[in-house]
Design goal:
single chain, about 100 residues, mainly alpha
């Protein structure tokens, strides 16, 4: 009887150990899930930094547009082909072969 009880307690201890190991490694709060969340956090932080830089550049453009006409004129020249009165427009074209 004593040997069977000892075997029973050993089996119960091994089963509990296996359950705890499973939860430690593979559960939603386990090691593997934790590593995946850390990678996701790093990816999101990098994305946030990129967006913050873009926002900063856009805010600088907005401030320039509100404070002066230099950026507005530059944009009109580049995108719309603005030529002021008294300026000469010269277009260099590559010859077709």
């Amino acid at each position: 009887m004593a040997i069977r009880a000892a075997h029973l307690w050993t089996v119960v201890a091994v089963i509990l150990l296996l359950i705890l190991q499973y939860r430690l490694w593979f559960d939603d709060s386990g090691v593997i899930a934790n590593k995946a969340l850390e990678r996701q956090i790093q990816s999101l932080q990098a994305s946030n930094e990129e967006h913050a830089e873009q926002n900063h550049a856009l805010m600088n453009d907005v401030k320039d547009l509100r404070s002066g006409d230099a950026l507005l004129e530059e944009t009109a020249r580049e995108q719309l082909g603005l030529v002021k009165e008294g300026e000469t427009f010269v277009l260099f074209a590559e010859p077709e072969s």
